[in-house]
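Reopening this one. Same input as before:
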Amino acid sequence: MSKIASTILMIRPASFGFNAETAANNVFQTASQTLTQKEVQQKAAEEFDNFTDTLRKKKIDVIVVEDTPVPPKPDAVFPNNWFCTLNDSTVCVFPMFAANRRIEKRDDLLHMLAENFKIRDVEDWSEYEAEHLFLEGTGSMIIDHEYKIIYACLSPRTNKTVLEKFAHAHGYKAMLFHSRDENGTDVYHTNVIMHLGEDYAVICMESIPEETERIAVSQLLISTGHEIIPVTFEQVRKYAGNMLQVKNAKGKKFTILSRSAYISLTREQKQILNYHTTLLPVDINTIESIGGGSVRCMMAEIFLEKK
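Same output, byte for byte:
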Protein backbone atom coordinates (compact mmCIF):
# COMPACT_ATOMS: atom_id res chain seq x y z
CA MET A 1 0.00 0.00 0.00
CA SER A 2 1.41 3.31 -1.03
CA LYS A 3 1.90 5.95 1.61
CA ILE A 4 3.27 8.50 -0.82
CA ALA A 5 1.68 9.23 -4.16
CA SER A 6 3.71 8.93 -7.34
CA THR A 7 1.01 10.65 -9.43
CA ILE A 8 -0.56 14.01 -8.67
CA LEU A 9 -3.34 15.95 -10.36
CA MET A 10 -3.24 19.73 -10.72
CA ILE A 11 -5.71 22.22 -12.20
CA ARG A 12 -4.34 25.01 -14.36
CA PRO A 13 -6.26 28.16 -13.39
CA ALA A 14 -8.42 30.04 -15.92
CA SER A 15 -9.74 32.82 -13.65
CA PHE A 16 -7.59 32.83 -10.53
CA GLY A 17 -8.21 35.70 -8.12
CA PHE A 18 -9.11 36.89 -4.65
CA ASN A 19 -12.15 35.05 -3.25
CA ALA A 20 -14.00 37.30 -0.79
CA GLU A 21 -16.26 34.41 0.27
CA THR A 22 -13.40 32.24 1.56
CA ALA A 23 -11.58 35.23 3.09
CA ALA A 24 -14.22 35.10 5.85
CA ASN A 25 -12.11 32.52 7.70
CA ASN A 26 -8.86 32.30 5.75
CA VAL A 27 -6.56 34.91 7.27
CA PHE A 28 -3.85 34.14 4.69
CA GLN A 29 -5.60 35.78 1.74
CA THR A 30 -4.79 39.33 0.65
CA ALA A 31 -6.25 41.15 -2.33
CA SER A 32 -3.66 42.70 -4.65
CA GLN A 33 -3.51 46.49 -4.46
CA THR A 34 -1.44 46.87 -7.62
CA LEU A 35 -2.42 44.20 -10.14
CA THR A 36 -5.53 43.99 -12.33
CA GLN A 37 -7.56 40.77 -12.32
CA LYS A 38 -6.10 39.91 -15.73
CA GLU A 39 -2.53 40.39 -14.47
CA VAL A 40 -3.23 38.29 -11.39
CA GLN A 41 -4.54 35.45 -13.57
CA GLN A 42 -1.56 35.76 -15.91
CA LYS A 43 0.96 35.58 -13.05
CA ALA A 44 -0.87 32.62 -11.47
CA ALA A 45 -0.81 30.71 -14.78
CA GLU A 46 2.93 31.40 -15.15
CA GLU A 47 3.64 30.20 -11.62
CA PHE A 48 1.53 27.12 -12.26
CA ASP A 49 3.42 26.25 -15.46
CA ASN A 50 6.80 26.71 -13.79
CA PHE A 51 5.61 24.52 -10.90
CA THR A 52 4.52 21.64 -13.16
CA ASP A 53 7.73 21.97 -15.24
CA THR A 54 9.82 21.69 -12.07
CA LEU A 55 7.98 18.52 -11.04
CA ARG A 56 8.25 16.92 -14.47
CA LYS A 57 11.99 17.64 -14.66
CA LYS A 58 12.29 15.53 -11.50
CA LYS A 59 10.27 12.75 -13.21
CA ILE A 60 7.23 13.26 -10.96
CA ASP A 61 4.05 12.21 -12.77
CA VAL A 62 1.66 15.18 -13.06
CA ILE A 63 -1.79 15.16 -14.65
CA VAL A 64 -2.72 18.71 -15.63
CA VAL A 65 -6.42 19.47 -16.06
CA GLU A 66 -7.46 22.82 -17.53
CA ASP A 67 -9.87 24.85 -15.43
CA THR A 68 -13.06 25.75 -17.32
CA PRO A 69 -13.33 29.55 -17.73
CA VAL A 70 -17.13 29.61 -17.25
CA PRO A 71 -18.30 29.97 -14.54
CA PRO A 72 -15.18 31.73 -13.16
CA LYS A 73 -13.69 29.83 -10.21
CA PRO A 74 -11.08 31.90 -8.35
CA ASP A 75 -9.86 28.90 -6.29
CA ALA A 76 -9.97 26.13 -8.90
CA VAL A 77 -6.18 25.83 -8.58
CA PHE A 78 -6.77 24.17 -5.15
CA PRO A 79 -8.48 20.87 -6.08
CA ASN A 80 -7.42 19.01 -2.92
CA ASN A 81 -10.36 20.54 -1.03
CA TRP A 82 -13.14 19.06 -3.14
CA PHE A 83 -11.90 15.57 -3.89
CA CYS A 84 -9.35 12.99 -2.84
CA THR A 85 -8.44 9.43 -3.77
CA LEU A 86 -7.71 6.61 -1.34
CA ASN A 87 -5.71 3.39 -1.52
CA ASP A 88 -8.91 1.33 -1.52
CA SER A 89 -9.73 2.55 -5.09
CA THR A 90 -12.26 5.10 -3.79
CA VAL A 91 -12.68 8.67 -4.98
CA CYS A 92 -14.33 10.95 -2.42
CA VAL A 93 -16.05 14.28 -3.11
CA PHE A 94 -16.42 16.65 -0.16
CA PRO A 95 -18.83 19.24 1.29
CA MET A 96 -17.32 22.71 0.81
CA PHE A 97 -17.75 25.74 3.03
CA ALA A 98 -17.91 28.48 0.37
CA ALA A 99 -20.88 28.24 -2.00
CA ASN A 100 -18.82 29.70 -4.84
CA ARG A 101 -16.26 26.90 -4.44
CA ARG A 102 -18.83 24.12 -4.83
CA ILE A 103 -18.90 24.81 -8.58
CA GLU A 104 -15.29 23.53 -8.70
CA LYS A 105 -16.62 19.97 -8.46
CA ARG A 106 -16.45 18.51 -11.95
CA ASP A 107 -18.00 15.30 -13.22
CA ASP A 108 -15.80 15.41 -16.33
CA LEU A 109 -12.70 15.23 -14.12
CA LEU A 110 -14.14 12.22 -12.28
CA HIS A 111 -14.94 10.56 -15.63
CA MET A 112 -11.39 11.21 -16.82
CA LEU A 113 -10.06 9.50 -13.69
CA ALA A 114 -12.40 6.55 -14.25
CA GLU A 115 -11.13 6.18 -17.83
CA ASN A 116 -7.50 6.03 -16.75
CA PHE A 117 -7.59 4.43 -13.31
CA LYS A 118 -9.33 1.56 -11.56
CA ILE A 119 -12.08 3.04 -9.39
CA ARG A 120 -14.24 0.88 -7.17
CA ASP A 121 -16.49 3.60 -5.83
CA VAL A 122 -17.15 7.34 -5.95
CA GLU A 123 -18.48 8.65 -2.64
CA ASP A 124 -20.12 12.03 -2.60
CA TRP A 125 -20.36 13.63 0.83
CA SER A 126 -21.74 16.89 -0.57
CA GLU A 127 -25.21 16.39 0.94
CA TYR A 128 -23.81 17.75 4.23
CA GLU A 129 -23.57 21.20 2.61
CA ALA A 130 -27.35 21.50 3.06
CA GLU A 131 -26.79 21.14 6.83
CA HIS A 132 -23.85 23.58 6.80
CA LEU A 133 -21.44 20.82 7.80
CA PHE A 134 -18.15 20.76 5.94
CA LEU A 135 -15.08 18.62 5.42
CA GLU A 136 -12.65 20.04 2.89
CA GLY A 137 -10.66 17.05 1.71
CA THR A 138 -6.94 16.95 2.38
CA GLY A 139 -7.10 20.58 3.49
CA SER A 140 -9.14 19.45 6.50
CA MET A 141 -7.51 16.05 6.88
CA ILE A 142 -3.88 14.97 7.08
CA ILE A 143 -4.15 11.29 6.26
CA ASP A 144 -1.62 8.71 7.40
CA HIS A 145 -2.39 5.96 4.87
CA GLU A 146 -0.02 3.45 6.43
CA TYR A 147 -1.34 3.59 9.99
CA LYS A 148 -4.86 4.54 8.93
CA ILE A 149 -5.02 7.70 11.03
CA ILE A 150 -6.59 11.04 10.11
CA TYR A 151 -5.23 14.12 11.87
CA ALA A 152 -7.61 17.07 11.81
CA CYS A 153 -8.08 20.36 13.61
CA LEU A 154 -11.72 21.35 14.02
CA SER A 155 -12.86 24.56 12.37
CA PRO A 156 -15.85 25.98 10.47
CA ARG A 157 -14.55 23.99 7.49
CA THR A 158 -13.84 20.74 9.35
CA ASN A 159 -16.88 19.30 11.08
CA LYS A 160 -16.40 16.66 13.77
CA THR A 161 -19.48 14.59 12.83
CA VAL A 162 -18.68 14.40 9.13
CA LEU A 163 -15.03 13.72 9.84
CA GLU A 164 -15.80 10.87 12.22
CA LYS A 165 -18.27 9.34 9.76
CA PHE A 166 -15.70 9.59 6.97
CA ALA A 167 -12.96 8.03 9.12
CA HIS A 168 -15.29 5.22 10.21
CA ALA A 169 -16.41 4.53 6.63
CA HIS A 170 -12.80 3.86 5.63
CA GLY A 171 -11.54 2.17 8.78
CA TYR A 172 -9.40 5.11 9.88
CA LYS A 173 -8.91 6.43 13.38
CA ALA A 174 -9.67 10.15 13.78
CA MET A 175 -7.16 12.19 15.79
CA LEU A 176 -9.06 15.42 16.41
CA PHE A 177 -7.64 18.51 18.04
CA HIS A 178 -8.12 22.27 18.24
CA SER A 179 -5.67 24.65 16.62
CA ARG A 180 -5.58 28.43 16.88
CA ASP A 181 -3.33 31.08 15.43
CA GLU A 182 -1.48 33.69 17.51
CA ASN A 183 -4.65 35.84 17.61
CA GLY A 184 -6.77 32.98 18.96
CA THR A 185 -8.58 32.40 15.63
CA ASP A 186 -9.35 28.81 14.67
CA VAL A 187 -6.95 27.55 12.02
CA TYR A 188 -9.21 26.93 9.03
CA HIS A 189 -7.33 23.96 7.49
CA THR A 190 -5.14 21.36 9.16
CA ASN A 191 -2.71 21.39 6.22
CA VAL A 192 -1.72 24.96 7.10
CA ILE A 193 -0.14 23.85 10.38
CA MET A 194 0.78 20.23 9.63
CA HIS A 195 2.51 18.12 7.00
CA LEU A 196 3.10 14.39 7.28
CA GLY A 197 5.96 12.75 5.44
CA GLU A 198 6.72 9.05 5.43
CA ASP A 199 8.92 9.17 8.54
CA TYR A 200 8.74 12.79 9.71
CA ALA A 201 6.06 15.34 10.61
CA VAL A 202 6.21 19.12 10.26
CA ILE A 203 3.76 20.64 12.73
CA CYS A 204 3.12 23.91 14.55
CA MET A 205 2.79 22.57 18.09
CA GLU A 206 2.27 26.04 19.56
CA SER A 207 -0.98 26.28 17.58
CA ILE A 208 -2.49 23.50 19.76
CA PRO A 209 -3.44 25.37 22.95
CA GLU A 210 -4.80 22.35 24.84
CA GLU A 211 -1.88 20.54 26.47
CA THR A 212 -3.59 17.15 26.54
CA GLU A 213 -4.29 17.39 22.80
CA ARG A 214 -0.74 18.50 22.08
CA ILE A 215 0.68 15.53 23.97
CA ALA A 216 -1.75 13.11 22.31
CA VAL A 217 -0.81 14.33 18.82
CA SER A 218 2.94 14.15 19.59
CA GLN A 219 2.72 10.69 21.08
CA LEU A 220 0.73 9.35 18.15
CA LEU A 221 3.23 10.80 15.65
CA ILE A 222 6.22 9.40 17.53
CA SER A 223 4.62 5.98 18.05
CA THR A 224 4.02 5.72 14.29
CA GLY A 225 7.68 6.40 13.53
CA HIS A 226 7.61 10.11 12.67
CA GLU A 227 10.36 12.51 13.70
CA ILE A 228 8.64 15.76 14.72
CA ILE A 229 9.98 18.97 13.19
CA PRO A 230 8.22 21.87 14.96
CA VAL A 231 7.53 25.09 13.06
CA THR A 232 6.60 28.47 14.53
CA PHE A 233 3.55 30.66 13.88
CA GLU A 234 5.80 32.94 11.85
CA GLN A 235 6.87 30.03 9.65
CA VAL A 236 3.25 28.92 9.28
CA ARG A 237 2.50 32.39 7.87
CA LYS A 238 5.11 31.62 5.21
CA TYR A 239 3.37 28.27 4.51
CA ALA A 240 6.02 26.06 6.13
CA GLY A 241 3.22 23.75 7.30
CA ASN A 242 1.87 23.34 3.77
CA MET A 243 4.16 20.80 2.11
CA LEU A 244 3.62 17.50 0.33
CA GLN A 245 5.91 14.50 -0.03
CA VAL A 246 5.67 12.61 -3.32
CA LYS A 247 7.90 10.16 -5.15
CA ASN A 248 9.08 10.12 -8.72
CA ALA A 249 9.16 7.34 -11.31
CA LYS A 250 12.33 5.91 -9.74
CA GLY A 251 10.88 5.95 -6.22
CA LYS A 252 12.95 8.92 -5.07
CA LYS A 253 11.17 10.98 -2.41
CA PHE A 254 10.71 14.73 -2.81
CA THR A 255 9.02 17.16 -0.45
CA ILE A 256 7.48 20.03 -2.36
CA LEU A 257 7.20 23.37 -0.60
CA SER A 258 6.95 26.98 -1.67
CA ARG A 259 9.98 29.21 -1.95
CA SER A 260 8.66 31.42 0.88
CA ALA A 261 8.26 28.33 3.10
CA TYR A 262 11.79 27.18 2.22
CA ILE A 263 13.30 30.58 3.04
CA SER A 264 11.47 30.63 6.40
CA LEU A 265 13.07 27.35 7.55
CA THR A 266 16.14 27.42 9.78
CA ARG A 267 19.33 25.69 8.75
CA GLU A 268 18.69 23.00 11.37
CA GLN A 269 15.14 22.35 10.11
CA LYS A 270 16.44 22.03 6.54
CA GLN A 271 19.12 19.59 7.70
CA ILE A 272 16.59 17.36 9.45
CA LEU A 273 14.23 17.48 6.46
CA ASN A 274 17.07 16.72 4.03
CA TYR A 275 17.91 13.66 6.08
CA HIS A 276 14.40 12.27 5.40
CA THR A 277 13.65 13.63 1.94
CA THR A 278 14.77 15.94 -0.88
CA LEU A 279 13.35 19.45 -0.59
CA LEU A 280 11.97 20.87 -3.83
CA PRO A 281 10.99 24.56 -3.49
CA VAL A 282 8.79 26.29 -6.10
CA ASP A 283 7.94 29.96 -6.40
CA ILE A 284 4.19 30.58 -6.25
CA ASN A 285 4.13 33.99 -4.61
CA THR A 286 1.00 35.32 -6.37
CA ILE A 287 -1.02 32.15 -5.79
CA GLU A 288 0.00 32.06 -2.12
CA SER A 289 -0.64 35.68 -1.24
CA ILE A 290 -3.90 36.17 -3.13
CA GLY A 291 -5.32 32.65 -2.90
CA GLY A 292 -4.31 32.01 0.70
CA GLY A 293 -3.13 28.49 -0.11
CA SER A 294 0.22 27.00 -1.00
CA VAL A 295 1.72 24.00 -2.81
CA ARG A 296 -0.08 21.31 -0.83
CA CYS A 297 -3.46 22.76 -1.74
CA MET A 298 -2.56 22.71 -5.44
CA MET A 299 -1.85 18.98 -5.59
CA ALA A 300 -4.42 16.20 -5.40
CA GLU A 301 -2.68 12.86 -4.85
CA ILE A 302 -3.77 9.98 -7.06
CA PHE A 303 -3.53 6.72 -5.11
CA LEU A 304 -5.47 4.78 -7.76
CA GLU A 305 -4.05 1.97 -9.84
CA LYS A 306 -3.58 2.79 -13.52
CA LYS A 307 -5.71 0.81 -15.96
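So the earlier flakiness isn't reproducible anymore. For the record, The radius of gyration is 18 Å.
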